[in-house]
Amino acid sequence: MPSSPFLDAIAAILRNMETTTGLGAAYHDATDPQARRANRTLCEFCRACFDRPDTAALCRISCLNAATHSLASGEAFYYTCWAGLVFVTVAIAPRRIVRGGIAIGGFCAPGDDASLRQIVPDRLPPQSTRHDRRFFSEKLKSIRPIGPGELRGLGPFLLEATFSSGLNRESDFRRQADRYAQQRAIAEAAAALKKRPLTRLPIRAEHLVAAWASRAPLIALRRETATYLAALLQHCSWDLLRFKAHLRVLAATVTRDRILKHGEWSQPSQHEMLLLSRLEQAHHIDETCSLVTEWLAGLRPEASPSPSIEHRPLAERVTRWIQDHYREKVRLNGAAREVGASVSAIVQHLRRETGKTFHQLLVDIRISEVKRLLATTDLEVSAVAALCGFSDQSHLTRVLQHEINLTPGRFRGLLTLPRLDNL
Predict the structure, then answer these.
(1) How confident is the model at residue 421 (pLDDT cuts 50, 70, 90)?
(2) DSSP secondary structure string, 66-91?
(3) pLDDT at position 397, please?
(4) What CATH number has the domain spanning 307-423?
(5) pLDDT at 311
(6) CATH 1.10.10.60 residue ranges in the chain?
(7) Interaxial angle between packed helices 343-353 and 358-376, expressed in degrees from 0 to 180 and rounded to the nearest 10
(8) What is the DSSP secondary structure assignment for residue 264, as one 8-state letter?
(9) Is 411 helix (H, G, I), strand (E, B) or coil?
(10) pTM score, whole prediction
């Protein structure tokens, strides 16, 4: 591998691991089969694996698979390699894309050395000779046992080393760890709910909102949220469209609570519309659950206050302006004049911060309001169209079919919303 600032940082971590822990470490790159390693403390077995192309490829595959799991969980990942040896790997993902993985390992659990001598010869590549089997069996003598406590301590240490080096961003991994923990909590809650028929949600939306607005322990709030989301998913038969529709009840509850507490309408309504716009872009249930949980976390008393209007990001200011004017004939030039920015600046910021054009954002906000009215009122479709800035009922129907492949009547029929007092 040619030298570069990135690889220099990798080499520094490997030296640090070697000096600090006295254990061997290696880096496997996603695009280059040549591994980087700390040879001085690497065990003889691992060194022999790296020196042979077919076994080195097996080591690399194991490490890169572990790196993928590490990024997904936001934590160090513990696993056994092709030979049954214990390793811990942390993904190297500067932009949340796995570029490689750093592994520390070549251990065995206490008492497992005898079983490894039976496993390794059978797991060598098919082309291996009898001499190869004897060679690797002999190298197993260099493997040292490691206890659970020492092994668990290596993961956080390696993870912190990647943060301090700048190779990974701590915020990315912490956020992903929170999401992964929430996914597990929802799965556990869903498993528990399967044991009994669900006649009503175990936690009402208003109680959940009040809990997040209190100073309750964060771990308890996340557990309650996971239970609420799992029950809602069960009620919706894990259908993403229905799940999103029901989340509007929770969003409306939050908005109502903040308006009643603070006496200010615009900001809570804007935050609700921004959430609904982001939910529209979520294509998976776990992504949707994460968005809702992060939004609820903003209700915590210690959450940072919102900046004043003039200091908010341009995309947020434009979104707020559209929210205030979506019932009218909205034009990009008019928005530019009102928010004090050029048309090109708005186009650029919206693309970067929302991934949408001005027109797409306008349609999203109008459709979000259409869905809210269809879900929570008995208004005629023609009245909904007029209230949401569409020229007539036919115009609304065409746009809604294009966006979600449903007519207004079909969308309203899919909701089958439970009574609000059960939520």
Answers:
(1) very low
(2) HHHHHHHHTS-EEEE-TTS-EEEEEE
(3) 92
(4) 1.10.10.60
(5) 41
(6) 307-423
(7) 60
(8) -
(9) helix
(10) 0.61
